[in-house]
Amino acid sequence: MRPTPSRSTKRSLLSALQLFSAAAAQIVNHTAPSLSFKVVSGGNDNHFLRDNLTSAQLLLTSANSTSAQRRLVVALPAGNSGALAYFLPADTSESGTLGVDLVEGSLRSATADYFNVGVQAELAFDANATLGVTIVGAVRAMRDYVEGGGVMHDVFNYTLAEYSETSVRLHRRWINTTSPASADYNGADLYLSVPADSAARLSVTPGSNGTWTPPIVEIVVPRGGGTVTVKVVTNETSFPGLDTEDLFLPEGTDGSQALQTALQGLASGNLTAAQQVSFLTYKDKFTAGGWRFLTYFGRDSLIALRLLMPTLTSEAIEAALGAVIERANSTGALCHEETIGDYASFVNMANGHPELGNEPYYDYKMIDTDLLLLPAMSHYFLDLPQGQGRAEQFLAQPATLQNGTYAEILNRSVHKTVFYNLERARPFSQSPNISNLIGLRPGQSVGNWRDSNEGLGFGLYPFDVNTALVPASLRATQALVEAGLLDFTQPQISASQIDAVASVWETQAPALFEVTVDGAEAEARLQHFVQAANLSGALLEGSLSLSAGNVSFYALSLRADGTPVEVLNSDMSFNLVYGANVSRAFLQHVVDALQPYPRGLLTNIGMVVANPAYDSNSTTIDVLNSAAYHGTVVWSFQQGLMASALARQLGFCSPDSTTNVDTNPAPSPAPSWCSDAAFVQSLRDAQTRLWTSIRGAKSEIYSEVWSYTFDNATNAFSVADLASLSPSGTESDAIQLWSYGFLGLLDPSGNSTRS
């Protein structure tokens, strides 16, 4: 499914002219990069560059890696394209080692024949090497290979276009190229070449079965090593980026003391993290993370926006909101993932529509994305000063991916989402039972942020969607209707109708997910878990035994038959960030969850997102273990969401202008639990424990996800690279958009997690 009608086919000539102009300007007057930084993460050195010609991430296996091979990844947001290459030591004996390092300062933008654009860098080899598996073209094809057990479709094979002892060109012709005359420029290229001052040489043996058989490419260097230039270019159009001064509010912006503190170093780009967010944000969309997700993801954009919104300019906020609206389809569903470039051609072919060529493919399978847009719009236009008085101008803006203005798209698309969500919500409001909850779409095994098959414990009804996001979307709709920003006169929908439906979801849905385990049984399951997970029983000795009382928590999800997936999890943060009228009982579950792991979720290196220690189904221990993408691992954005959640709820009792960066209008009257000083203190204690946990791995705070190793001698956890543990090779992005939500938060202790 895709937005209708699409204009992307009408832009190809304009894009080519823009690319020509940009390339010509760059050649005539090469400018310094607007962004250039390095991030070391997960055994990889990640180098980032953006200038007036292109944006690119170059990843190279770190020098201290024990792996015999060295991996190179070049990822370009333009077309979500690039190249993947493995360099193997030519000496295959056990003593054979290979060092490949990026020559400092050599990464820069580059052009090639036919005005193709990309980046180049010099690599220093300390020994002879052989070019191993190489993929040129789509980043998604590269990710499929890395995390899919080495799977690669033949359609992504490259050809040996030209070679000599000083230069090799590997060419990937785009799938939808039909004209032989355009084959040389309609694609992507990986060049290896020898600089004039290098004594290295290239030895190339073409494949014996024609041009589609990979050649043997050897890099021969003299004793002491040599350098080779690698260049990756494509004819895809680069996107204009949001520089830090366009992205973040300037220092001195009117607001709370907390906002003033948070803004330091952001707009100026003096804070490295601000530059990293800038790399991921563009004038027509936000991208999710690098290198694996340098393209649009609706959920990621909207959650990152919710956390970062108080620090962002109107231009940036509206770029993110507009990108979501532009990708709405005719039914009102919102796009989860955008597939562009050559991989779009591959997907269109697989779907039986080769005539679409590389028209973007939009994925609408998720059920949470649809529920996140209106809460973001409500917070922006109704709560934040940046959004005051801007709704009319924003809604009148003409779209570029669809015909019409944003208001017209909302009227024909997102209004349908509102009607759709309201109608889906009505049955539960009339009969609040499990069968009337919102489940995954038919035929789909995923539907919320835990988008792996195992992420929901194979459940059908996600906790976050049903207890937090459905009522949040309804409340946002109600607020926008009351403010006159959404007009639902045809058909008539009143704020009181929405209020009545939302109230039932808020009060009744959480109870359906509640799990209670007898105290003695809970203790026995904990003892079994620490043994099965190769942890130490000492982790339980340091926490209060719960055998004297029952243990209660909210299930990760419910199965089709209504039975709970008995996994303690972090998704309560959605309720506290997006929800109204959060009960004291709910908050008590949050306090209980923010205890030391494995009784709770907190380790000394972060908050794990799932803890199967209390599950009566012990097989879940292996399903959601420390090697699973959504298992007993730490997702940084989930920590940020929980930190924001606690700040918001505590702010309802006693607003603190020194620590609360966001603007959260307090309910009137204040929540009844605010009058219980002891309970409020328990929430503050949980907040302190959470931030202590977060600070334990602050060097990883802007990355996507990390796992742990455990030392039984010290009973302490250490950060571990997920890729080294994952059986499928699933790895973490070095920079991830929603992890930068921490830039919109302040540690109440006064410590800093910023870099």
Describe the protein in words.
The chain is an alpha+beta fold. Among the domains are: 33-234, no CATH class; 567-744, no CATH class. It is 32% helix and 20% strand. The chain has 21 helices and 33 strands. The strands form 10 sheets. It has an 8-stranded antiparallel beta sheet. Strands 6, 7, 8, 10, 11, 12 and 15 form a 7-stranded antiparallel beta sheet that branches. A hairpin with a 5-residue loop joins strand 24 and strand 25. The protein is globular, with a radius of gyration of 26 Å. The two termini are 41 Å apart. 52% of the residues are buried. The model is unreliable at 4-31 (pLDDT under 50). Residues 1-25 form the signal peptide. InterPro entries: 6-hairpin_glycosidase_sf. This is Glycogen debranching enzyme.
Structural class: alpha+beta
Q: State the helicity in percent bands.
A: 25-40%
Euclidean distance between termini CA atoms: 41 Å
Low-confidence residue ranges: 4-31
Strand fraction band? 15-25%
Query: How confident is the prediction overall: mean pLDDT?
Result: 91
Shape: globular
Number of helices: 21
Largest sheet: 8 strands, antiparallel
Order of neighbouring strands in the sheet with most strands: 1-2-3-4-5-9-14-13
Task: Please state the oligomeric state of the protein chains shown.
Answer: single chain
Question: Rounded to an integer, what's the Rg over CA atoms?
Answer: 26 Å
Could you tell me the number of beta strands? 33
